[in-house]
């Protein structure tokens, strides 16, 4: 089973999972589930904040000179615990979830809105569990202290 999950991780990196969910949103969209101008403003704000979280987190990782590639968590050189990482252990995945929700709301995909937890579960099982295991091995007590103080999502 572990070998199969490893293959799935490689075949379905987080950005591809997000794209697949966005395509599903398009296929299940219905204009009757949109709410005009209010809907656009809410979606734009949610997408903007989500994108800002993703970009800020990527910038933090770059400044700390550590890997951003979830398939190579074992190559992490620094455990980043400040900035966005002070309130979420997975701010990029949280931002991706926000983008998925914003897009589903914007195009009126009720199924897409309801699928956000499924997206989060897929990312958690395929990527976060593995990444956290690697970080625990690599950073030991430092990771355990961080894990106790900061939640996985929010």
Automatic annotation (TrEMBL):
<feature type="transmembrane region" description="Helical">
    <location>
        <begin position="101"/>
        <end position="124"/>
    </location>
</feature>
<keyword id="KW-0812">Transmembrane</keyword>
<feature type="transmembrane region" description="Helical">
    <location>
        <begin position="38"/>
        <end position="59"/>
    </location>
</feature>
<protein>
    <submittedName>
        <fullName>Isoprenylcysteine carboxylmethyltransferase family protein</fullName>
    </submittedName>
</protein>
<keyword id="KW-0472">Membrane</keyword>
<dbReference type="Pfam" id="PF04191">
    <property type="entry name" value="PEMT"/>
</dbReference>
<keyword id="KW-1133">Transmembrane helix</keyword>
<dbReference type="InterPro" id="IPR007318">
    <property type="entry name" value="Phopholipid_MeTrfase"/>
</dbReference>
